Amino acid sequence: MVKTAFKVAYMGTDFYGFQRQPKFPTVEGELFRAFKKARIMDDPIRSGYSIAGRTDRGVHSLGNVVSLKPDSEATINQINYYLPSTIQIIAQAEVPDNFKPRYADYRYYRYVYFKDPYNKTSLDLERMQDASKLFLGEHNFQNFTKRCERTPIRFIQEMKVSQNKMITVIDVVGQSFLWNMVRKMVQVITMVGAGKMDETDMELLLNPDIYASITPVPPDGLILMDVNYEDIDFTFDRYAKHNFFKTIKEEYIRRRTIAAAEEEIIKVLTLP
């Protein structure tokens, strides 16, 4: 069989991260069960299974990638039949035998930050945009991950900050990222926007000789938007995309309804 790469979309809310864990539901654990039931992978080692990245608990994805040499043929939707509706394979590509998902051309993350409507402090978009430029290029991100990281040098290709009413969107593109790195970068950018930090402070954080502790923003707003590879063209499945869209839309409406009910309760509780 030809080695195949799959793009996996998922909402991470109900899972304990991507990586398989014996006692907790994870994205990878669900994938392994689906692959086995669809009879395309019984032994990950024998099939040469590998992944692009292990997202943390609560992080979502539209483009994480796994690859394997299947034991037999199966369509995307035959595999998706055995997956929860919040995890769906949406695209696939035939890849060379030496293909390894972790060696990507670039990874693209998006963080969606919802402003607290009951906090009068607003985020200064211009300051955030200026501050984001300091992250561009090659830096030592030792303070943005575990201190024991042996290779903390990373190159940021692009970083954009935009706002739409109550939402601030931060897009980050780079070849690879360290554990918690994106969420800590977002924390710093939002602190600059809130006036709690300036560019001089940011420059100090990028100095590995100065120890700094940065609390990452919550994982709920982080999406792995895409993982891209040179000369690898993925074919998207319209039916699979539609099914995932339907699931997300229904959950979105349910959560917006709950939020609307909570807003009405808050209005009453804040009356004089």
Summed up:
With 272 residues, this protein is α+β, with helices and mostly antiparallel strands.
How would you explain this protein's 3D organization?
The protein has helices at residues 27-37, 76-80, 125-132, 181-193, 199-205, 238-269; strands at residues 4-10, 50-51, 60-68, 87-94, 106-114, 137-140, 153-164, 167-174, 222-228, 235-236. The chain has 272 residues and is an alpha+beta fold. Strands 1, 2, 3, 4, 5, 6, 7, 8, 9 and 10 form a 10-stranded mixed β-sheet that branches.
Give the secondary structure arrangement, pairings included.
Blueprint (H helix, E strand, L loop, with lengths): L3 E7 L16 H11 L12 E2 L8 E9 L7 H5 L6 E8 L11 E9 L10 H8 L4 E4 L12 E12 L2 E8 L6 H13 L5 H7 L16 E7 L6 E2 L1 H32 L3
Parallel strand pairs: 3-9
Antiparallel strand pairs: 1-3, 1-4, 2-3, 4-10, 5-8, 5-9, 6-7, 7-8
Quaternary organisation: single chain
Provide the helix percentage: 25-40%
Order of helices and strands: EHEEHEEHEEEHHEEH
> Helical stretch count?
6
The rough form would be described as globular
Radius of gyration: 20 Å
According to DSSP, the number of beta strands is: 10
Whole-number average pLDDT? 93
Strand content: 25-35%
Alpha-beta content class = alpha+beta
Q: What is the distance, rounded to the nearest whole angstrom, between the alpha carbons of the first and last residues?
A: 70 Å
The biggest beta sheet is recorded as: 10 strands, mixed
Which spans of ≥5 residues are poorly predicted at pLDDT below 50? none
State the main characteristics.
272 residues; alpha+beta; 28% helix
